[in-house]
Automatic annotation (TrEMBL):
Gene3D superfamilies, alphabetized: 1.25.40.340
Signal peptide: none
Residues annotated as domain DhaL: 3-196
InterPro entries for this protein: DegV_domain_contain (IPR050270), DhaL_dom (IPR004007), DhaL_dom_sf (IPR036117), FakA-like_M (IPR048394)
Keyword match Kinase: yes
GO molecular function: glycerone kinase activity
GO process annotations (BP): glycerol metabolic process
Designated name of the protein: Dihydroxyacetone kinase-like protein, phosphatase domain / Dihydroxyacetone kinase-like protein, kinase domain
Keywords carried by this UniProt record: Kinase, Transferase
Superkingdom to which the source organism belongs: Bacteria
Organism, as annotated: uncultured Rubrobacteraceae bacterium
Keyword Lipid biosynthesis recorded: no
Matching Pfam families: Dak2, FakA-like_M
Amino acid sequence: MAVKVASMGAAAHAALKAQVARINALNVYPVPDGDTGTNMLLTLESTLKDAADADYSSPEEASRAVARAALMGARGNSGVILSQMIRGACDVLAEHGALDAATFAAAMDGARERAYASVREPVEGTMLTVIKDAARAAVGAVEGGEDDLPAVIRASAVEAHESVRRTPELLDVLRDAGVVDAGGLAVAVILDGLYACVTGEEIESTFEADDDAPDLTAIHAEEEGWGYCTQFVVSGFSGEAEEFEEHVYGNGKSVLVIADEDTVNVHVHTQDPGAMLSYAGGFGRLARVK
């Protein structure tokens, strides 16, 4: 399993890297800062590198190493959510000795569950919707009797692209700008990479190049007030986790707080990054401040 999963991770990275500029150009939600593709790519790069440097002797240890690497390497709103998708998939992979169709479907569902759990107020029409629909397609294929891994991955990827197409119907800011969701497209592209890895074939894109030019006039008026994008890790976290989380949410926007046993990764847009970092420093050691 380890070799195949590692190869699939590399293929997902290659697919995302090839489309990163296009994905960035679509980025209008939640903050129109044009870095969704870059943040997801950097998250995946960091995860793959740190996991490769870790020592492990079993699928369980490998999965834990990847999940930990994703937590530490998450960048930006989209990267944080991607890290939790990776963690959810790893939770499932740790319990299985082989990556087959059923395991892939279960891993996709684990990714969906973790992704939604990472967001306090999930918004549909985003990458959350796309991973949900892609997971349902994978699970549905297996429940329908499909036991071929490439076929299940293809079903998931095809539905992901269809879900991306539907995102403007669910989120007004996308419809007004004339684009699909950037993070959602990145999820679909990652699945394309997984399919290419196991088959050597590509899934034909469902989008035309001239669909990728957003009308930013509809959202520029809302840009002000977001504050500064601030991200940091608190290692050796000690204190009241609920109090910490409430403070971050109460003093910022576009907030995501994810954690494992003793480490917390925070992404927040705040008017006073210094005050936020000073507060967080009271709970442990600050690292990876951006």
